[in-house]
Amino acid sequence: MEINIVNEGEQLIAQLSGRLDTAAAAEIASDFQTLAAQADKHIILDCARLEYISSSGLRLFLALRKESAAKGGRLQVRAINADIRQVFMMTGFISLFEII
């Protein structure tokens, strides 16, 4: 699992690639804390290269969403594949996130 955070002015783009399973979620939790610290900005989670997401990964997304809402920021999830979209639909996350 890799995460690359690109700062584009008022936008932060977090490019996720690989499998976001339980072990990977623990590894990138500090990266999500970095994003949460700047949750007053417009954050885009780019999932074009994300292959899988576990419940631990979903928790990271949800925590960032809550922080973004608390700080008046904007969080979008971009380019999820069909499998991840299915997970979002089954868990109800599809209605919690702005998916572009």
Q: How would you explain this protein's 3D organization?
A:
By secondary structure, this protein is α/β, with parallel strands linked by helices. It has a single domain, classed as STAS domain (Transcription Regulator spoIIAA). It has three helices and five strands, in the order ββαβαβαβ. A five-stranded mixed β-sheet has the order 1-2-3-4-5. Helix 1 runs parallel beside helix 2. The mean pLDDT is 97.
In the CATH scheme, the class would be Alpha Beta
What is the chain-wise order of helices and strands? Answer: EEHEHEHE
The major pleated sheet works out as: 5 strands, mixed
Q: Gyration radius, to the nearest Å?
A: 12 Å
Number of DSSP-assigned strands:
5
Give the distance, in angstroms, between the N- and C-terminal Cα atoms: 22 Å
Shape: globular
On the 0-100 scale, what is the average pLDDT? 97
Helix content: 40-55%
Please count the helical segments: 3
Which fold name fills CATH's third level, the topology?
Answer: Transcription Regulator spoIIAA
Give the strand line-up of the largest sheet. Answer: 1-2-3-4-5
How many structural domains can be distinguished in the coordinates?
1
The percent range for strand residues is 35-45%
Detail the poorly predicted runs: none
Q: Based on the structure given, which CATH architecture is correct?
A: 2-Layer Sandwich
CATH superfamily: STAS domain
Instruction: Briefly note the structural class of the backbone.
Output: alpha/beta
